[in-house]
Amino acid sequence: MPAAAAADTRNWEPPTQLTEAPLQMMRGDVAMGPGGETIAVWAAVEAGAATWDARALVKEPGKAAGQPQILEVKGVEPKVAADAAGGAIAVWSNRRRELVASVRPPGGSFGPGQVLARSTKQFDLGPGVPKIAMNARGDAVISFYYMAHLPVEQGQFWEIRRPAGGDFLDPEPISEVLGAEVRL
To answer: Phi/psi of residue 29, each to 5°?
Structure first.
C-alpha cells in the first residue's frame, strides 16, 4: 500500500436519505460541487402516479436534505455534471422525444429546461441516453443517441457543447448512422 494511502484516515460518512418514501426511482446520477455539496438527479414516480419525473436535489455537507426540485414532469434518464465554481448542468430526455438541459448557477437552483434536440424525420424516436461531462472551468459536452425504427432500427451518436457561461451550441453528429447491432 502506498504511504499516502496508508496515512489517509478519512472514512465514508453513513448513507443519507435524500427523498421521502414511497418513491420508485431509476437511473440516477450524482456530481459533487467544490464545497462538497451533493448534486443528485434521478427519475422518480410517486405511489399511484402514472408518469416519471426528472428531479434534482442539492445537499450541503452536514445539513439535512431539502425538497427535491422537479426538473420536468415526464422526464427520464437524467444526468448531471458540476464545475469547480459550483455550477451544474442537468440533462434528460422526455416523453415528447426531446433532449432537455437545465443550468444551475453556483449556490442557486436549476433554471427552466431548455430543449436542445427533438425527434426528426430521420430519427423519429428522438434523442435519448444522454451523458454529460464538464471541466473545472465550466465547459460542458453532452452526448446522446438519436434513434429511429423505420425503415430499420438505426441511430447515431451526437454531441452538444456549451462553453463556460455561454449558450448551448447546435447538435453535431459524432458517428456514422449505426444499424441495429448497437446496444447501449
So the answer is: -150, 160
d(CA 18, CA 59): 8
183 class by beta-carbon count within 10 Å (0-12 exposed, 13-18 middle, 19+ buried): exposed
Q: What is the pTM of this model?
A: 0.86
Which tens digit of pLDDT belongs to each residue from 122-134?
888 899 999 999 9
In a domain, 180, yes or no: no
For residue 8, tell me if it sits in a domain. Answer: no
| Residue 150: strand, helix, or coil | coil
Q: Is the pLDDT of residue 61 over 80?
A: yes
Domain count, the chain: 1
| Domain range for 166 | 22-173
Q: Is residue 14 in some structural domain?
A: no
